[in-house]
Design goal:
Blueprint (H helix, E strand, L loop, with lengths): L11 H8 L9 H5 L18 H4 L4 E7 L5 E5 L25 H14 L3 E9 L5 E10 L7 E7 L2 H11 L6 H12 L5 E7 H5 L13 E7 L17 H11 L8 E3 L2 H8 L2 H7 L6 E10 L5 E11 L6 H38 L8 E8 L9 E9 L5 E11 H20 L4 H15 L16 E8 L4 E7 L5 E3 L5 E3 L21 E4 L5 E5 L11 H13 L7 H12 L8 E8 L7 E6 L5 H15 L4 H21 L4 E8 L2 E8 L19 H8 L2 E6 L4 E8 L1
Antiparallel strand pairs: 1-2, 1-5, 3-4, 4-5, 6-7, 6-10, 8-9, 9-10, 11-20, 12-13, 13-14, 14-15, 15-18, 16-17, 16-19, 19-20, 21-22, 22-23, 23-25, 24-25
Helix pairs in contact: 5-6, 5-11, 6-11, 11-12, 12-13, 14-15, 16-17, 17-18
Length: 720
């Protein structure tokens, strides 16, 4: 080892070395190790008074200088805690590392050489001569000019410092796996292998309080270090054998009181596990090993075990009482974070189930539907309030709804579910898209009332929604939007672009700012493709929102008419969704098909007394041409006669009769200019009128009313 280090005040190595005198007790690693190890760096340091204070010093610094080839040129690791490290000039720094850490640390060292940017405070293990390991905080600093190479400063992790570092690292994520991994990495300071096994109920987010007596089923959540393990050994994601779960549960729940247990050596481990298969599943090394099992206990009455942390080490290094206290303290602090992650997982699962429940199932014969819902990453605030839905209406049309509720989590999900179900109910009742949005606007305003709202303490003001109704006969789409991003339309002639919709502030805005909801009607001939989405798909920090929508339009335009629509939707999302997703991504693609021309017929009649007779004659002729069964034909003729008679009596203006042959049924529609709602009522035996709707009710499988700009349409379906 070089005994004449440079005195340049700009050397990082010298700065660290001069600071060592205040931390290193009298004597050094070489002196403590004996004459055989005395060939190291003999730099003189300011003496530290002997005594208990010196001997109890916990935080120890050291420094190692490297050249550009990552070879050691000199070193200052004189403190007793560094004894046994072969830091010899001329040897590669990689010799100080465990084999599985060599690629990662070497890559970090080369990055600092190439970029000149320091890598600070990496928790790392160094390997001693005897195979034991030392946990240190490693900082890699570039050498100051004119020197080349690196200076690696080393801080041996004192007990309290390590506990503090572990506590700050654990609980930074609400993901169960990441929380368990942080705990396992921290536990590795006390052993050679660390594992964390969690109760299966933690993974599913189920309630765990008050279930001490139940049978614990464990699944491995984390395992360090990362290396190739023998066949049969339990690795992350695997369920522990039933025997192993039972043994660990019994061990840490003696007399129903959670406690730490220590099995000191391999012989005792095999005797306790009492099964070669369980030994293969749990014991990480062939050489003699002992283990400390520390339960993760949720502070409840009675206490509840969430899982077990296991620390394995060689039998010649038994666990001291002070180490067990440290392990128990660290694991106890972690149990709270694990339970928080469990609760987050439960909320995440519930919201995701609600989201999936609202996704469209199929499009029917007149429209093809495909949807993709991609929730935000677990590190974000959780699943949000985005939703898409598509469903057939009883009158043969198809509704498509997309919305984005403000916020994330259960509050947003509850509001989203309520708005989605309310929209579906109102659309099924025959309301137009703008009328539905008026009701949703009022609902959002009511939900924002902290006293009476269903989601007290959560505000959904500013949520957006877009509703479209597709008529497969006229091939027209009626669309209304409340502040939502415009859908993208691709027509069969190749024209592509977002629909031009008037701006709107969204749902629940202040009364003075509210704008009326407009209805935008456009033609979507068969083969047209309509894309609905939420902002998570098109928002990009590097692009404006208009550029993001243009990118979506370009991607949707590449969908070929013969492409499978679901596969095309996934391709569009994978091409546009941001890599670091911070919001839900939602896409709904709708390919218009419509009815064939020969399956629909429209009859227009003046509102005169002879209209019912003319309607009966034309409908009879049409159904004969369609070769409808006689009994079905008679039902439809009677049905149309009653509906046209009703229109002549109670409405004015022209009457439109439309027949649609759809699947196993016939859909009959009679439109007029009246705005009164037909109501089914019980009639007395002597009443002369009021029996028309009763006849309609008995002849049909279902019937209803929808309103138009010029009046209403009464529709009815008859099985054929």
């Amino acid at each position: 080892m070089d005994s004449t280090p440079s005195r340049s005040s700009s050397s990082a190595f010298e700065l660290v070395s001069r600071a060592l005198g205040r931390y290193i007790p009298r004597g050094g690693a070489a002196e403590a190790a004996g004459p055989a190890d005395a060939g190291g760096d003999r730099t003189t340091h300011r003496p530290v008074p002997a005594g208990p204070a010196a001997g109890s010093q916990e935080q120890i610094l050291g420094a190692v200088n490297l050249d550009r080839q990552l070879m050691i040129t000199r070193c200052n690791l004189d403190a007793p805690v560094f004894a046994g490290l072969d830091a010899v000039a001329g040897r590669p720094f990689a010799d100080l590392l465990p084999p599985w850490d060599v690629p990662t640390v070497t890559r970090r060292l080369r990055q600092v050489v190439e970029t000149g940017e320091a890598h600070v405070a990496r928790i790392q293990r160094l390997r001693r001569r005897d195979g034991s390991e030392l946990v240190v905080s490693l900082s890699i600093l570039p050498a100051a000019a004119p020197e080349e190479g690196l200076t690696v400063s080393v801080i041996a992790m004192a007990r309290r410092l390590h506990l503090y570092a572990a506590e700050t690292a654990i609980g930074t994520s609400l993901d169960i796996g990441e929380t368990a991994q942080s705990l396992a990495e921290s536990l590795l300071a006390w052993g050679d292998v660390a594992a964390v096994d969690l109760d299966f109920a933690v993974w599913t987010g189920e309630g765990v309080a008050g279930q001490v007596q139940r049978r614990i089923r464990l699944r491995r959540a984390a395992l360090v270090p990362d290396r190739a393990w023998p066949e049969g050994y339990v690795t992350p994601g695997d369920d522990l054998p039933i025997d192993a779960s039972r043994l660990l549960a019994q061990a840490v729940l003696r007399n129903d009181a959670p406690q730490t247990i220590v099995i000191p050596d391999r012989e005792a481990v095999e005797r306790v596990l009492d099964s070669p298969r369980v030994v293969r599943a749990l014991v990480p090394v062939d050489r003699s090993a002992g283990v400390a099992c520390i339960p993760l206990v949720l502070d409840a009455e009675p206490p509840v075990v969430l899982g077990v942390a296991e620390v394995w080490r060689r039998a010649d290094r038994p666990f001291r009482d002070s180490e067990l206290f440290d392990l128990q303290e660290l694991v106890a602090r972690t149990a709270h974070h694990v339970d928080l992650a469990r609760q987050h997982q439960r909320e995440h699962t519930q919201v995701l189930a609600l989201q999936r429940r609202l996704l469209p199932r199929s499009g029917g014969d007149t429209i093809e539907i495909a949807s993709v819902y991609q929730p935000a990453t677990p590190d974000s605030a959780g699943v949000g309030g985005d939703w898409v839905n598509s469903f057939p209406l009883p009158d043969g049309r198809t509704a498509m709804v997309v919305g984005d509720v403000v916020g994330h989590g259960l509050g947003a999900a509850a509001t989203m579910g309520q708005l989605s179900m309310e929209a579906r109910a109102l659309l099924s009742a025959g309301l137009a898209p703008d009328e539905v949005l008026e009701h949703l606007d009022e609902t959002v305003t009511l939900l924002d009332d902290a006293e009476s709202g269903l989601t007290a303490g959560y505000s959904a003001l500013g949520s957006t929604c877009c509703i479209a109704l597709y008529d497969p006969v006229s091939h027209q789409v009626a669309l209304s939007s409340a502040g939502h991003l415009p859908p993208v339309l691709v027509t069969p002639d190749g024209h592509t672009g977002p629909l031009a919709l008037p701006p709107h502030p969204g749902l629940g805005t202040e009364f003075a700012l509210r704008e009326p909801f407009d209805v935008h009607t456009f033609l979507a001939p068969p083969g047209s493709l309509l894309a609905f989405y939420t902002d998570g798909l098109v928002e990009n920090p590097a692009l404006s929102i208009d550029e993001g929508i243009d990118r979506l339009a370009d991607a949707v335009a590449t969908v070929h008419p013969w492409d499978t629509l679901q596969q095309a939707a996934r391709h569009v999302v994978s091409a546009l969704a941001p890599v670091h997703q911070r919001d839900d991504v939602t896409l709904l693609l709708a390919r218009m098909i419509g009815y064939r021309k020969g399956d629909t017929a429209t009859i227009r009649l003046p509102a005169r007394h002879d209209a019912p007779a003319r309607a009966r004659a034309q409908v009879f002729a049409l159904l004969s041409q369609w070769r409808t069964r006689d009994d079905t034909r008679d039902k439809v003729v009677l049905l149309v006669s009653e509906l046209v008679t009703n229109a002549v009596r109670f409405a004015a203006g022209p009457i439109t009769v439309r027949l649609i042959r759809a699947g196993n049924g016939l859909l009959c529609e009679v439109g007029d200019s009246g705005n009164g709602r037909p109501r089914l009522r019980r009639g007395d035996l002597l009443d002369d009128g009021g029996r028309g709707l009763s006849i309609v009710h008995r002849l049909t499988t279902r019937w209803g009313v929808r309103w138009t700009d010029t009046g209403k349409v009464v529709w009815a379906e008859v099985a054929r």
